[in-house]
């Protein structure tokens, strides 16, 4: 599989979360909004300098680019 940071995916790309880097506070925050290992993610919008808009667990979520760089996915 080809593992990439979430920020590297184009709009419209389906993927699955395989790894999340970061400290306890960051991990707690992103898991509380649905970013967990194995979760399917659809990138709805990925424009430079703007937050990413993703769809996961039947919810649209905007996530800061710096945070999205710590979430690694495999394209499906």
Automatic annotation (TrEMBL):
Transmembrane segments: none annotated. SMART domains: FeoA. Residues 4-75 form the Ferrous iron transporter FeoA-like domain. One of its GO terms (molecular function) is transition metal ion binding. Gene3D superfamilies: 2.30.30.90. The keyword Iron applies. Pfam families: FeoA. InterPro entries: Fe-transptr_FeoA-like, FeoA-like, FeoA_core_dom, Transcriptional_repressor_C. This is Ferrous iron transporter FeoA-like domain-containing protein. It comes from Desulfosarcina ovata subsp. sediminis.
């Amino acid at each position: 599989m080809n593992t990439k940071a979430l920020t590297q995916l184009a709009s419209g790309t389906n993927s699955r979360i395989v790894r999340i880097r970061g400290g306890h506070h960051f991990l707690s925050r992103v898991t509380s909004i649905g970013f967990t290992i194995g979760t399917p993610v659809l990138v709805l919008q990925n424009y430079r300098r703007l937050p990413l808009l993703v769809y996961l667990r039947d919810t649209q979520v905007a996530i800061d680019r710096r945070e999205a760089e710590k979430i690694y996915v495999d394209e499906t």
